[in-house]
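Both lines are given unchanged directly below:

***
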Amino acid sequence: MIEKIHHVAIAVRNVEESARFYTERLGLGLREVKVVESEGVRIGFIPCGETLIELVEPLSPDHTVAKFIEKRGESLHHICFQTPDIRGEIAGLKEQGCTFISEEPKLGADGLITFLHPKSSGGVLVELVQQAEA
């Protein structure tokens, strides 16, 4: 069961520079910046109500996010939906014919994550997250 939109991710060259628009112009706050070595990115979290804006900066020029930016520029990268049972959600979506970039959830910045292949979701990269227990 999908509970809510957890975050909307934007691919950026530099988290702090990109965060200025949201903090200075929109009055939102940059909550924290995390390096997620396993994913090869730095992530800046900007809360907006119950949803986060996630600024995703690649740590290396050969990272898939760096290639995305090179091709499309800094822009919307993916949308993430929160679920209380990521494995159950994967199983249900697989039964419906969806394919995943990785079927086995892995630890991300805010819990267990996986990505649906964009071919399964109308060309949109979709992430699922089961938020870590607080």
